[in-house]
Each structure stands twice: as structure tokens, then as C-alpha cells.
Amino acid sequence: MKYVLVGSGQFSEKSNFKEYAKKCKVIACDGGIDHCRKDNIVPDIMVGDFDSATNENYIYFKNMGVEEIKFPTHKDMTDMEIGMDLALQYGADEIYIFGGIGSRLDHSLGNVHLMCKSLKEGVKAFLINEDNTVTLVDKSIEINTHRGQTVSLIPLTTTVEGVTTVNLEYALNNATMTIGSTLGISNVATEDTISISVKNGILIVFLSQD
Fold this sequence. Notes:
It is a single chain. By secondary structure, the protein is α/β, with parallel strands linked by helices. The chain has 2 domains: 2-130, Rossmann fold, CATH 3.40.50; 137-208, Thiamin pyrophosphokinase, thiamin-binding domain (Jelly Rolls, Sandwich). It is 24% helix and 33% strand. The protein has helices spanning 17-23, 32-38, 55-63, 79-89, 105-120, and strands at 2-6, 25-29, 45-48, 67-70, 94-98, 124-128, 132-137, 140-144, 150-155, 159-166, 175-178, 187-188, 193-197, 203-208. The strands form 2 sheets. A 10-stranded mixed beta sheet has the order 4-3-2-1-5-6-7-14-9-12, sandwiched between helices. A 4-stranded antiparallel beta sheet has the order 8-13-10-11, with no helix packed on it. Helix 4 (79-89) packs parallel to helix 5. It is elongated and about 55 Å long.
């Protein structure tokens, strides 16, 4: 089953949130409730401390009978992490995160790191807004893209070894990438599908919509 997690970060219609939400189970993480109400999406579950969602929308979905899992404001994880844990617990095989990129850089970077949880479970996760799609790779991945799309690879771990790419303009063959280098920035897809493999470590993959 595919899951959408929606948080309070901003995204536009160009992100295709509604299209994903209609095909997946939806977990609204606190302020993500407001996005659901705006786009006429009824979440399957709403989670969090509900300190950033508008009370009107919270009551609206509560009255509709949407399942609610409430947490205290003072806790050791974000509402998005609660949603991620729940999706994995329910057997998600792919996870799409919307509202996870915003003005709070700490939350945005935290959501990139959060995808490590699903990666360890062998579950692909994608962090999406209208400008970027972000995912992680620790073994191999094939991604649908389009010719000319900007693709950037940035190490998440200190060193990433054995990086090999297919259908990128600046090909890497068994390369080693390290934190502190911009080697992987602004590559270009040469076909409508690319593949990336690594032997050791974790890469962040950015697909930019420029």
C-alpha cells in the first residue's frame, strides 16, 4: 500500500498532491490537515499535537469521523516522524511526503533524514514539492525523469563509495563521493529513466523542476 504523509510546509498545485492523495492512504500530520481541507481530501488518519492546524479544520475532520491519534505538545519527535512510523507500521511499500519542505530549514533537513527510517525497512520514500523531488539510495534505484532534467547527488553519509550512474550526462563509474564536495551538483538526465547505484553509504537524490 502506498501512503501520503502531508505536513504543514507549503506546496502548490504543481506538486500534484491531490493526484497522489487520491491513489494512496493519507496521513495528515498536524498542519497537514489544513492542506487536506483546502484540496478537498479526506485523510484516513490525522496525527500529532494539533498545535499548527486550524481548530476549525481539526473539528471538521473530527466530526467526519476521521481517525485521530493525538500526542502531547512536548514530545521527542516531530509530527511527520509520527506519521512515518505509522505508515511503516501499517505496511507501506512507498511513501510520498508533501508539506515537508518549507521555511524551516531544520524541519526540511530533518525530513530528508527521516527518509532513512523507511530506507532501512526497504521502503522507498519521496519528499515532494512543486520544485523538487528528493529521495535516498543506499543500494540501487531506477527513477522516471525526463531528458534535460537537473539531477543532483549529495552524500548523506560522510563517504559514499561505488557510485555508478546510468543516463546522466556526467557519468559516474564506481566513484567515491564525500561530504564537503559539490561533485554531484547539477547533473543532467539524458533519457527518461535514470539509474543510480552505490556500494556503501547513502546518497540524497534531488530531481529539480527547473
